[in-house]
Sequence to fold (336 residues):
Amino acid sequence: MRKIVSAISLIAVVIIVYLARYQLLEAFYLFWRVNIWWLICLLPLQLLVYYSMSETGISYLEQNRQIKPISWWTKIKIALELNFVNHILPSGGASGIGYGIWRLKTVGVEKTHSTLAQMIRLVAGYVAYVPVLIICVILSIVSESNHYILETIATIIVVFSLVGLIWLGFMLTKRDRLTIMATNIVRFVNLFIRHITFKKVNQAISEIKWIKTLEIFADDYNKLFSEKQLLLKPLMWGLFWIMGDTLMFEITFLALGQPIDLTAIFLAYGFAGVSGFVFMTPGGAGAYETAFVFILVWCGIQAPLATTGVILTRTILMFCTLATGAYFYHKALRKA
Fold:
């Protein structure tokens, strides 16, 4: 099933690239206007982002004394390895989580603890995104930028995100509610996949395994929120992670001599992240960039400028991730 989804995703990306070929040609000419000194600033910022990404999970383990002290450089290497795995395997981020559990085990963390750390990393990143978007909306309104559509959409996303978090927390606190929710989700997904595959795939997801997984997740969730004070550090690092990750795009637009509204970037960043997760291409390649450019253009940014800024940022970041991540990844495997 995953191969079918990956194939469909790749075909969709090819079609999108073909339809946008003229915009891509215009974007190519904009590359020559780049200020190289601004682009150099991406490298130290990327290291900060990867360090923050590692700290969102590892800081929780450190507070619980579930991990031996490790250096800041080791934390950066772990984050680079995780991103490398996510970029080479089409799994919507699942490969990185699995590798992260194994990698933390090599530094003395038990599997149950490393699984919880990976969950915290994902939750902290998501939770941190909401207040940053709220701040951007407030700044946009105060500055009287007249981006009414952008402000409205961002506000709707914030409201739905907060409602979603409250609803998820409500469902996870009771096993009965969780079981009912999990059963309905699995049945709906299986029914949908059965229809689109013309009954060739009758059960894409095992109901029993899915419920068991969610019950483990719920246990971790309840344990986590019984020690709320230990979440402050992960959330702080999650904030640095999200802000740094989005600011890299703004730096590229500054390098092009065309700074754009931060609210648009944060909105596009969240939408692209979801698209990269849903479409099973390696690292969300193609789907991520397309979604990012689509939102920026919809927010009023010229298509050639949006395309150039996003592709240039992603190219630099992916090159650094693949080059360094591959080295540290193979080095870690040899030591295991």
About this structure: The mean pLDDT is 75. The longest helix spans residues 303-335. The chain has one domain: 2-147+228-335.
